[in-house]
Amino acid sequence: MYDVEKRGNVPIYEYLYKCIRNDIVSGRISNGEKLLSKRRLARQEGVALITVENAYEQLLVEGYIESRERSGYYVSFDAGRFVMSDYSDDSSRSSNGNINLNHRSANNSIGNIKTDNTSSRANNTNSKANITNSNNNISGVIERDIPQVPDIVDFVSQRLFDDAFPFDIWSKLMRKVLSDRNPECLAQPDPCGLPVLRYAIAGYLMRSRGIDADPDNIIVGPGTEYLENILLILSGGGALTAVEDPGYKKMGLLCERAGHKCLHIPVDRDGLDVSVLEGTSVRLVNISPSHHFPTGVVMSAGRRAQLVDWAEREDAYIAEDDYDSEFRFSGRPIPPIAAAYPERVIYMNTFTRTLAPSIRIAFMVLPDKLMDRYRQKLSFYSGTVSSFEQLVLAEFINGGYYERHLSRMRNYYGKRRESIMRLFESKEKGSINRNDTKEKYDDTKETHDNIHADRSDNQKQKENSETSIFVPIKDVAGLRIVLKAPDSLDDEKFIKALSDKGIKLSCINDYCYSHNSQYDHHFLVSFGAASEADFAKALPVMEKAAMECM
After folding, report:
1. pTM of the full predicted structure?
2. pLDDT above 80: residue 477
């Protein structure tokens, strides 16, 4: 029994979540063990049912437990395989956490969208991963030709809604910085970033992400691409670098242009398939574990432990891109790996995503060893972000404006997401829930999509205007929605038909190194700059085009 009276100022659901998580990690609750039902635990602890539901939901999202239909919740984290640092708040901020695998067997579970690849190591002929050091097969959304047709709506752009930017506050802080006649405005910026901004970032990371970052280990740059180039230099010329597949394609391009061979590793329902890294010479792996781009998968606790153990054994580093961690609309934020393992993980994030594309300021937190290497090799670099912009951003963070801005943004986009989802729910009674996908998807093609498994349904959809052709895969984070279309749809023809009508849309396959049939008929819809009215206007056009392309 957990004593909720000891929770202090922590919400009850979060306290329960932490207690159960610590029991799982410590092995007090063993792998495969069934948890108390939600109602029974609520009665035992004297709390509301919704409180227990929220605690279980967070454990489910992070991969500590799994839901079995008509059975209940079971632990899905094998503490016997790992020796982990305690995951309590204090230890998660320490710098000396470590992790070891007692058994080297890889977790080959299949993702929530079926994978057709066969297993092997990266250095074998039949590898799951693709290795490249050329620009072949790099196409998709980066180079897709869009006809010059007036846009009805752009579902590809990562922009935010213009009115969401805090113009009044930003302009006030700009005037303040100028009126102070701060000599730093005119000085050449520090190559690592102005100290005032690095200290502001460190404070924000401690408050929001539980990362105890040394300001002297923070590097500020004009974007994640610039920071990735620094990491590639620090990795050594020609080193093998790993990226997610599907994933952010620019990372693969940057590696190749820098002369690095790039290992494209598949992503399943638990995140990056760490087993593919075994036996390779990879020294840097790029991941987005808290909300994978573009699938939205959250890397499970077991997979995270396996990845850190691999990095420890191979003296490799993990670049953790936390690019949209601020946009989580339900539950508590997913803990970054860097909070518990700062000596193996490079934490990266950008203000571009939360403020505006024109504000080109990103940052990364380097482990001590890499920071020493940076000072030895790259201390001659010039600062790349204007001092004036850095001072304004520092004022924005230190004044508490940034966190209030994020709170408004979460509220704003959370409501927008709900409104957009209602457009589909008004037509389609059932939809795929991201948190249920681990149980609802299996390895057979018939259940690749449990809603559209029967191809005969396609004809019924054409005849029944009340049934949506597209099924949204529900998610509780990010500014995008994944739509699943019927299996009979010709994806390329559909995309072309939409672009001719002024609607920009991308496929998940656009973000794959090479075409992967498991992602056929899955489309990525970004709504950062698209309103509910845009969706209402575009959806009938999309449905009509889809019916014509089936």
Report:
1. 0.77
2. yes
